What does this fold into?
Amino acid sequence: MMKQIFFVILFLISTISSFAQIDENWLIIARNTGTYVATDGYEVRIMGFTPSLGASVDIPGPTLRATTGDSVELRLFNLSQHAPHTVHLHGLDVNQANDGVPSLSFTIPHDSSGYYYFKAPHPGTYLYHCHVVSAVHVQGGMYGLIIIDAADPETTWDGGYEFNSEYAWMTSEIDTIWHNDTIIEHEYDPDMIMSLNIPKFYDPQYFLVNGAMDFQMEEKGDINVHEGIDAKILLRLANIGYMANRYEFPAELEATIISSDGRPLPVSEISDSLWIHPGERYQVLCNPLSEFEDSIRVDYVDMAGYLKGTQYINVFIEGVYGVDEKKVRNIIQLYPNPAQNIIQCSLQQFEYEILTYSGQLVAAGTSINGEIPISHLNNGGYLLRIKGHDETFTKHFIKE
Ligand SMILES: [Cu+2]
It folds into this structure.
């Protein structure tokens, strides 16, 4: 008995002491009074989170940032007049009481505030969103990024990769039908009647990166590196839309996928493409091999596999010199692409695997002259995984 009491006291002390001191205070305010002005001038009502009373609603909401190990207090203030809101800390290892899922945690009604407490877990890129009638409130605009830095903020995690610049891109879409007044102003709905009013179709008109599209990308997304020697660019990618994103990176960027959902990948992979499904986060490290101007392509693909939208993020890399010439020569090219029968690779001898975009292995072999036969494949897009001497490269190609 004494032993049990001792452990209970020990537990209480450790719980209290872990939050006795707050290292990081985050405040976000839930509003439903926002207006999103699209590139064509169309005005869409939005919900969202702002960092202060005076700030207007923007999508995504403010980026929240802490250092690994910090005790974080997140205060959510609801000033949205109608429905309650929460903050779900997507991907962070926090306990259920602080995770913002209404049935397991708590909701915050209009004119009230509530607090979430957690200790910032492992470093990485995460996201937050409201979890009240999620389909509606997330589409409404209630989302943002969370970045947890490593103790050394220029390293991806303890013993991880160093980087000297970073870009964070959160992708989403807007279907204006989902932004009508009755949806944006819906009342508290404990019986989930609201779900009956959710539009039956989702067919977005706007495809966003950090809330921007087309010519707005210059300000919101572009990579500009002027001192490219030994540039190590960390990309923090998060998808809060309802479509899958396919990123296509220029080969000269040498994009290496290093972590997924906040966890380091067991084997990092140099890739010219990356799929990010709704709710997923990836970190990609780029180490440009030459000076160049190009763009990263982001496709928005619906559940049936149809391409619905595309954005381009411009990349300007200057001042790269002294790069290992062998590496530059080894930038792997595939041609033609799309191809019908045979794809020619600029490497000569290698082992390879061909996978569908969903990861199913459909072919494997060894090439001795750089040729890869593909005539037996169905038409469509594939990933080609090439095993080099000490690195694995993933390229994508289209069979037609
Ligand atoms: Cu909400």
